[in-house]
Amino acid sequence: MSVKGDAVTASGTGHVDGERLRDRIAVELARARARTTLLTEVVDDADLMRQHSPLMSPLVWDLAHVGNQEELWLVRDVGGREPVRCDIDELYDAFKQPRRDRPALPLLPPAEARAYLGTVRDKVHDLLDAVAFTDRPLVADGFAFGMIVQHEQQHDETMLATHQLRSGPAVLHAPSPPEPSVRVGGEVLVPAGEFTMGTDTDPWALDNERPAHRVDLPAYVIDAAPVTNGEFAAFIAEDGYGDQRWWSPAGWAHRLREGLEAPMHWRRDGDEWSYQRFGRWGRVRADEPVVHVCFYEAQAYAAWAGKRLPTEAEWEKAARWDPATGRSRRYPWGDDDPTEAHANLGQRHLRPAPVGAYPAGVSPLGVHQLIGDVWEWTSSTFDGHPGFTAFPYREYSEVFFGGDYRVLRGGSFGTDRSACRGTFRNWDYPIRRQIFSGFRCARDARPDESYR
Ligand SMILES: [Fe+2]
């Protein structure tokens, strides 16, 4: 079922549609909470309170922060109800508390944090039973509920990244992703012309995905698949990390400062490479998309390969534009929500799937695995689409515009389908690689290619 099909438009808040929307919200809230519970119950209290990396919060901070945001937006703003606990608002304000300082805060202990989340969720269920989905922007189409579902799922992905950084025996288990069923490789030509970027119609799309607008691009060529471990290992073998020619000045300075020699979590294993995945070591698999590389590493690889990173608009056109109809789809495969057959999402597997594993997820132009597996670095800095309006608050997106952030697209194996669309935009500093980040390359089309 698609979000669109389920959504209630502001003009059509009929009783039946309202009930369907209520049911859908309840299902999505429960799915997010089940994942939060799993990620915070597989480790003991000491582990929850510990900071596994200065880049990350203790898991117990994320836990109570999820509840606090739910209280602020749903219980207080949408519901107009009495606060559950306003004494902790400051502690769980991501803007006031930098990650590195969070372990020193007087955080709620795990049992208290869980009880708090339970109390807030009970109130949200009360509210959901009674709420009228009027055209008030915060409640039209259940937007604030959708925002809170996505927020919790995004923190679940962050908590999954924290799990990848923790030491100790493996506590997370999942089946292997599917094996390749088609051969995928090479490049795809995207003809010159306009397409629609962003959205006006996806009811739970966030402010930075809006509005829909036309973008005209010259012809370009984009990789049919994300760059694989095997391809990245060739870059390492040819001394890609040691050759300054491939690196931007900022990237080279960062590489030297941090001593980067391979993707995060890789180590040499004789002539080959091994990587660590959630507490387990294994041989690097050549046909899997490379993950845990920063923007600078992606940029250097692309230069070495004689290419470049795609712009954000190039990524989105390759993912959404349907040459047969001229319209932009919600996802590469169409407008329907992702299923297991389309993409590797939602922590169903604990690693990217090999290239060729998701033929049903291919875009109309023949580009594979744009959604799921790994977030893909683009060359674009994070900014508002033309006509951007901050909603529901500037801190959601706008305060990050114009900074040193690069946009990542498409979601990873750790991204839930509720927080992943063809228009969804993620952003991070170019040095970050504890996230599930990979990339694909692009290049300008040559004249002989563009006029074919
Ligand atoms: Fe947050």
TrEMBL record:
Domain Sulfatase-modifying factor enzyme-like: 186-443
Protein name (database record): Hercynine oxygenase
Primary gene name: egtB
Pathway recorded for this protein: Amino-acid biosynthesis; ergothioneine biosynthesis
Known function: Catalyzes the oxidative sulfurization of hercynine (N-alpha,N-alpha,N-alpha-trimethyl-L-histidine) into hercynyl-gamma-L-glutamyl-L-cysteine sulfoxide, a step in the biosynthesis pathway of ergothioneine.
Alphabetical list of HAMAP family matching this protein: EgtB
Sites where the protein binds Fe cation: 65, 151, 155
Keyword terms of this UniProt record: Iron, Metal-binding, Monooxygenase, Oxidoreductase
InterPro entries: CTDL_fold, DinB-like, DinB/YfiT-like, EgtB, EgtB_Actinobacteria, Sulfatase_Mod_Factor_Kinase, SUMF_dom, SUMF_sf
Cofactor: Fe(2+)
GO molecular function terms attached to this record: gamma-glutamyl hercynylcysteine sulfoxide synthase activity; iron ion binding
Ranges for domain DinB-like: 29-159
Lineage per the UniProt record: Bacteria, Bacillati, Actinomycetota, Actinomycetes, Micromonosporales
Species this chain originates from: Micromonospora jinlongensis
